[in-house]
C-alpha cells in the first residue's frame, strides 16, 4: 500500500477531518506543517494521517486516533496549541474541523 | 465561507472519507468525477462534499450524509456503481474508504 495512506486498524477508531483554505504565501507554514505532522504521529493513540492540498491552496488532512482521549491530549499539546494560534492568525483563510467515529472501512482496488 | 467547504448542519451526521491515489493520465476521470460530484450532491440526504488533490495525484474527498440509509442509497445508485467499477479498473492505484459518524464540528478562524 502506498505510504501516503494511513495504516489504520479495524474500526472503531476516530478521525479528525480538517478542511482548510490557505492564505497566499508560505509565512513559515510548510515547516510548521511538517513539524506538526511528525509530532502528531508520535502522540500516544495516533494511528496515522492522510493529507493533500491543491494548487489553489485548498487542503484536507485527516488524522486517525485510537479514542477521544488521545484527540483531547493532542489538542492540549502545547506546541500544537501554538501552531493552531498561528493557523488562525496567519495561515488559514478558513477551516472546518470535524471529529468523527469511524465505523466501517475498506480499501481497494 | 468559501464555497469549497460543505455547509453541514449541527452533528450528528455521517462522513464518507475517500483517500485515493490516481493512476497517471486522465482516461475520462475528470469528466466522470465532476458528474459524480453533481449526482451525489443531488441525492437525498447528501449534505455536501469537500475535495482536493495534489500534483502527485493524491486526493481526498469527504462527502457528508444525513444518515447511513442515504449512504447506502448512494452506494446502490446505478451510475455511481458504474463509476466505481471504472475507478477500480482504471483510475485508482489505491484507495481507502472510511465511513464515520461526525460527533463534533467547528469552523474558523
Task: Describe the model.
2 copies of one chain form a homodimer. The first copy, chain A, is of the alpha+beta class and 109 residues long. Helices cover 32% and strands 39% of the residues of chain A. The first copy, chain A, has 3 helices and 4 strands. The first copy, chain A, has a 4-stranded antiparallel beta sheet. In chain A, a hairpin with a 4-residue loop joins β2 and β3. In chain A, α1 (29-41) packs antiparallel against α3 (78-91). The A-B interface holds A 1-2, 4-6, 8, 11, 15, 17, 19, 21, 50-55, 58-60, 62, 87-89, 92-109 and B 1-2, 4-6, 8, 11, 15, 17, 19, 21, 50-55, 58-60, 62, 87-89, 92-109. β4 (92-108) of chain A pairs antiparallel with β4 of chain B.
Give the key terms.
109 residues; alpha+beta; 32% helix
Assembly status = homodimer
Task: Give the helix/strand class of chain A.
Answer: alpha+beta
Q: Uncertain spans of chain A, ≥5 residues at pLDDT below 50?
A: none
First CA to last CA of chain A: what distance?
11 Å
Strand order of the largest sheet of chain A: 2-3-1-4
Biggest sheet overview of chain A: 4 strands, antiparallel
The Rg value of chain A, from CA coordinates, equals 14 Å
Largest interface by residue count?
A: A-B, 42 and 42 residues
Order of helices and strands of chain A: EHEEHHE
Number of strands of chain A: 4
> Treating each run of at least 4 consecutive H or I residues as one helix, how many helices of chain A?
3
Q: What is the residue-mean pLDDT of chain A, rounded to a whole number? A: 96
Helicity level of chain A, as a percent range? Answer: 25-40%
Determine the strand fraction of chain A and express it as a percent band.
35-45%
Amino acid at each position: 500500500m502506498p505510504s501516503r495512506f494511513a495504516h489504520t486498524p479495524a474500526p472503531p477508531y476516530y478521525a479528525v477531518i480538517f478542511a482548510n483554505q490557505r492564505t497566499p504565501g508560505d509565512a513559515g507554514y510548510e515547516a510548521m506543517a511538517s513539524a506538526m505532522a511528525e509530532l502528531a504521529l508520535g502522540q500516544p493513540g495516533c494511528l496515522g494521517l492522510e493529507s493533500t492540498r491543491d494548487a489553489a491552496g485548498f487542503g484536507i488532512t485527516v488524522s486517525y486516533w485510537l479514542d477521544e482521549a488521545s484527540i483531547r491530549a493532542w489538542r492540549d499539546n502545547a506546541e500544537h496549541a501554538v501552531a493552531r494560534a498561528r493557523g488562525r492568525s496567519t495561515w488559514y483563510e478558513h477551516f472546518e474541523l470535524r471529529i468523527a467515529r469511524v465505523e466501517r472501512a475498506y480499501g481497494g482496488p
